[in-house]
Design goal:
Structural class: alpha/beta
Order of helices and strands: EHEEHEHHEHEEHEEEHEEHEHHH
Number of strands: 13
Helix content: 25-40%
Number of helices: 11
Shape: globular
Strand content: 15-25%
Largest sheet: 7 strands, parallel
Number of domains: 1
């Protein structure tokens, strides 16, 4: 098992990044952060800067960094259709800059790249495995896939250790966008209707953010680091119809539910990830959706009226994983 004692988190001021920083600190690791966000975290060394203007190699050497988590870049798949060059620079281009810096370090650290399940695009069967064919539906997905390929190339050519984590639909306290946040906000506001933008039969694999960051660290410690990719998924397929019911239950709200007629450009219809590869490393994402929605609804209710920059900070936690009494492994996959 690889020992993780000193980590560099790129994009540590973002939603997943803040959870990761706190998880690493709770595990006793030394943590250095580079982020465009000025938010600080007690115990971490924080650099507020754009990655394009920072020399990473000296920081890696001075802090004896053994693991670099890259969660920086753009995460706007529909928006990338209208701004593909900007998206490419924020994702694929940024990855090359980081890899170029790391390959000049005497002892290169493990590079952990935060990729996306969007690389799969439209799929022929479910659940989706890491070695299934990929067919990206947006420039964002193409740039994420390109970054994975650069990671693999730098492993083969320069011996740079690395892994890519394909996140499915991450949600939880601190998130101020995406479907679950929007729906919980609707549910907690006055009005008779909860409107889901996607059709009722659209499905996703929702994963609670605490599980995600714990899995990211566990995989970093246990994976070979030969440029391989891992799904970070629950393995549970949830329809928008079932999600809406869960949102109302978590919010203790009673509303009529309406659904959109079509998907946004760049969005797939059905998604659920295979978890065999991370399970082989002893990694499991265990928070049932109902529990995660309840925690997220409680956070949103407590932060109602709080400025977004402050409310985006996740609640503190010990870093220890909460084990539910019964692990939910049921999937509604009727493919």
């Amino acid at each position: 098992m690889r020992e993780l004692t000193s980590a560099l988190v790129l994009g540590g001021g973002g939603f997943i990044g803040r959870w990761l920083v706190r998880s690493l600190l709770a595990r006793g690791a030394q943590v250095t952060v580079i982020s465009r966000s000025g938010a600080d975290e007690p115990g971490a060394e924080w650099h507020t800067a754009d990655l394009r203007s920072v020399e990473i190699a000296p920081i890696v050497v001075a802090r004896r960094i053994d693991t670099v988590f890259d969660l920086a870049g753009s995460a706007d798949a529909p928006g990338s259709i209208h701004a593909p060059l900007s998206d490419l620079d924020s994702n694929g281009g940024q990855t090359v800059r980081v890899l170029e810096a790391l390959r000049h370090v005497p002892t290169p650290p493990l590079y952990v790249y935060g990729s996306s399940a969007a690389v799969y695009g439209r799929v022929a069967h479910l659940p989706i495995a890491e070695d299934d064919p990929v067919a990206p539906l947006s420039p964002y997905a193409v740039s994420k896939l390109a970054a994975e390929q650069y990671l693999s190339l730098y492993r083969r050519v320069h011996g740079q250790p690395g892994i890519a984590l394909r996140f499915f639909s991450v949600y939880g306290p601190g998130q101020r966008k995406q479907a679950i946040f929007d729906l919980l906000r609707q549910a907690q506001e006055p009005g008779p209707e909860l409107h889901v933008r996607a059709p009722a039969d659209v499905t996703r694999d929702f994963i609670f953010v605490r599980d995600v960051v714990e899995a990211a660290v566990d995989v970093a410690e246990r994976a070979p680091g030969h440029g391989e990719v891992y799904n970070v998924a629950s393995g549970v397929e949830t329809s928008m119809e079932d999600l809406a019911a869960g949102i109302l239950a978590a919010s203790k709200a009673h509303k009529n539910v309406s659904f959109g007629a079509e998907l946004r450009p760049g969005d797939p219809h059905r998604y659920v990830g295979a978890t065999r590869r991370i399970a082989a490393l002893g990694v499991r994402l265990e928070t049932p959706l109902a529990d995660g929605l309840a925690q997220t609804a409680a956070w949103l209710h407590a932060n109602r009226g709080t400025p977004a920059a402050d409310a985006a900070t996740p609640p503190r936690h010990t870093g220890a994983r909460m084990r539910p009494a019964r692990i939910r492994e049921v999937t509604r996959n009727r493919w």
